[in-house]
Amino acid sequence: MIRRLPMQTWFDGRSYPTLSLGLLDCCAAQAAPVRAAGPTDGLTAGPGLRRLPYSRNWEAYTVVPAADILEQRWPAALVAGKLVLIGSSSLGLSDRVATPLSPLTSGLLVHASALTAQLDVRDGVAPAPWPGRWIAAAYALLVTLLATWAFPRLPAWSSMGLLAAASAAWLLLVWRLLPHDAEFNPAGPLLVNLFLLMVGVPLAWQSTQRHSRQLLGTLRQYVADAVVDELLRQGLKDPLAPRSGEVTTLIADMQGYTSHVEALPVEQAAQLTRDFLDCLTGPVLERHGTLDKYTGDGLVAFWGAPLPVADHADQALDAALAIVQAVRAFNLRRAKRGLAPLRVRIGIESGVALAGDFGSSSRSIYTAVGDSVNVASRLETAARDFPYDVIVGPGTAARCTRHPLLLLGDYILRGREHLTTLYTLSALAASPEAAA
Fold this sequence. Notes:
The structure is a single chain. The chain has 436 residues and is of the alpha+beta class. It has three domains: 2-123, no CATH class; 132-219, no CATH class; 241-429, Alpha-Beta Plaits (2-Layer Sandwich). Helices cover 44% and strands 21% of the residues. It has helices at residues 19-27, 66-70, 107-123, 132-150, 156-177, 187-222, 225-234, 257-261, 266-286, 312-336, 371-382, 394-399, 426-429, and strands at 2-6, 8-11, 14-17, 49-53, 96-99, 102-106, 243-255, 290-294, 299-303, 343-359, 364-369, 390-392, 405-412, 419-425. A hairpin with a 2-residue loop joins strand 2 and strand 3 (14-17). The longest helix is centred in the middle third of the chain and has 36 residues, at 187-222.
């Protein structure tokens, strides 16, 4: 505990020491003079000033009542060879001062503390000096670097907890440091922590929020809102990062697109494309599918990523049935205007695939890659050779549990060497509208 005490007083151009300093200079061998500048013992603080470590209370000193000394009731050997302060406290002369020991400390105890501090310095008992200012600056820099690294990676509450822990650690260090250097101001690192709390934490939080909004905006372009909400609930750190897992891919396309639009004006061709894609997109998102991309007059979608689901095969088959029903309803509206019906071709296959955000630093897309995705594309193409709108691969047939399938046989798909067992939905095979 430190307090600054004037050790010298100037009057008429002469310097007068305090009681403790005069006693030390007069009666103590090898007295240590007060230095005007350049503190080396941690106590000097400017010309004629000392910072005093109040390390002892009254109980640490031998106090002899003055009456006992005057009447010689006290053994002379007790004070022989000792530095003795003689004085009294006068409340009327304001001889009570506030110190770290007490709000009302006797002036004589102040001089005793000053004498003790000087004797400790002379005898080498005082703590070794530490560079407190440099330690404070290094600590503030260390906390700043730590906050710069941690804030973008931690939630706001965790960042606030980090600063609180850093402040508590600094106060503990200050408790050890003060006896070694009374010159430095311990408030520096605390002010740096306060600045980081008021500026750094909000900036990091805003940056995280902006990144989250961008991520959510990207996700909502691909997946249904219910899937996004579930991803938020689960708190996945990076839901767009490529991950390997089981997915079911659905690829849908309009058969004979060119023949349908070649005689139409550009505006009508564009409207036909939008209406047909609406028939495909709605069922995919309603069944919690992930929209991979549009392929002109068709689309690619998959289930099982970014949110793993156990019944991804059945969900894809649900969407396929809904797509077929939507296209049939669209054809009824076209028939009332005397227009030819449209046919949708759908290929579905399940298997292990790598799903995630792929691309370059300037442009990317959330997609799935793997052999099952390639097979789904071949199945969609093979649908033109069958009177069924939906062709299902063996991977989906092995994983679905809610949809009965009709076996079509083993075929060699384009671009593949081995036979592939093909299926279709029994519900569509039994429908009179199954054929194109």
